[in-house]
Amino acid sequence: MSIPSTHTACVSDEIGTYPTLRAVATPQPAALGPGQALVRLAFSGVCHSDVALSMGEGTHAPVAPIISGHEGVGHVVALGPGARCALGARVGVKFIADTCMSCPACLDGDDMYCAEVSIASISRDGTFQEYIAVAAAHLVPIPAGVPLHVAAPILCAGLTTYKALVGAGLRPGAWVAVPGAGGGLGHLAVQYALAMNLRVVGIDSGDKRALVEGYGAEFVDFRHGGVVQAVKAVTGGGVQAAIVTAGVIEPYQQALEYLAPRGVVVCVGLPASGTIAVDPCRMVTEGHRIIGSAVGNRRDCAEALALVALGKIKVELEVRPMSAIKEIYQELEKGAIKGRVVIDMRQQAQPW
């Protein structure tokens, strides 16, 4: 296949600016390094962290000019020396683009904590572009039967929530609270928890009730107040885990109050500011834990996608053109998007 000399990308010239479309140089097959693959991207999910990083609100500062995105899906079109991947394979490019694969963190499967980790949209260009050269070893195979645009949000939102639930170490039948249950991460956390035979109480505004209850979860409307008491009433005393996907601080404080003994708060959402008060005596006497969870490794991603292939997970999404990227960012800033948005980066519309 012929590889063009340039392709279209969404580029922010500096931190704090919205991306615009422009032509950038396309990596050529002859220039691919050992173990690299060139992927022709068809879709990319848009995550709130893309906006935060571009606007300088994240925990890490990206390198400008910025090409964001870390939920890219497409096909392998060229391979560098020694790359172990098939031409034409349907693959995903996720947040963790490369690691050393030999440090203690990598050997433990904790890719995110590799000292040499390469992160799409921060330390290297991301997936809001038509072509990308990446480490073939970190490409994620997309299962047959899963449409590419559906797979895209699983590479971050799905992976992150799945890994958080795995990290909670729960037994079937345990109660899980999901603050932010109707959001882009939250609606997937609810479904993954149910697929793991857990009982779920979703916490969100009342307009998300039908969505969350439609999955088979209980629901608490935080706008009515009394969240702690409401969760305890629904669960008969408290939850074994809270997977906090909301990006504000108050749900974290509430979660500490409605935990059952030996419960765990899993920190996923990233508040722009704020801290929580922790009572060490209660932590000790009730055996509570607070842990952080950031994305996941290649095996976690394969498992998260497998549940989609089995029909256990339905992604609430909207596909929009690449040219709408600025408007998508603005809507995410306002909290006006339900579920996920996926941008279509193909030049010609094709059936999915």
Oligomeric state of the chains?
single chain
Count of separate DSSP helical elements? 11
Q: Strand-and-helix sequence, N→C?
A: EEEHEEEHEEEHHEHEHEHEHEHEHEHE
CATH topology title of the largest domain: Quinone Oxidoreductase, Chain A, domain 1
Largest pleated sheet: 7 strands, mixed
Mean pLDDT: 92
Name the beta content range: 25-35%
Task: Flag low-confidence runs.
Answer: 348-352
How many structural domains does the protein architecture include? 2
CATH class of the largest domain: Alpha Beta
In total, the number of strands is: 17
Content-based structural category: alpha/beta
CATH architecture of the largest domain: Alpha-Beta Complex
Rg? 20 Å
Sum up the overall morphology in one term: globular
How would you describe this structure to a colleague?
- It is an enzyme of class 1 (oxidoreductase).
- Keywords: Metal-binding, NAD, Oxidoreductase, Zinc.
- Belongs to the zinc-containing alcohol dehydrogenase family.
- The protein has 352 residues and is of the alpha/beta class.
- The protein has two domains: 180 residues, Medium-chain alcohol dehydrogenases, catalytic domain (Quinone Oxidoreductase, Chain A, domain 1, Alpha-Beta Complex), CATH 3.90.180.10; 135 residues, NAD(P)-binding Rossmann-like Domain (Rossmann fold), CATH 3.40.50.720.
- The chain is 26% helix and 26% strand.
- The protein is built from eleven helices and 17 strands.
- The strands form four sheets. Strands 3, 4, 5, 8, 9, 16 and 17 form a seven-stranded mixed beta sheet that branches.
- Helix 8 links the parallel strand 13 and strand 14.
- Helix 4 packs across helix 10.
- The longest helix has 12 residues.
- The chain is globular and about 60 Å long.
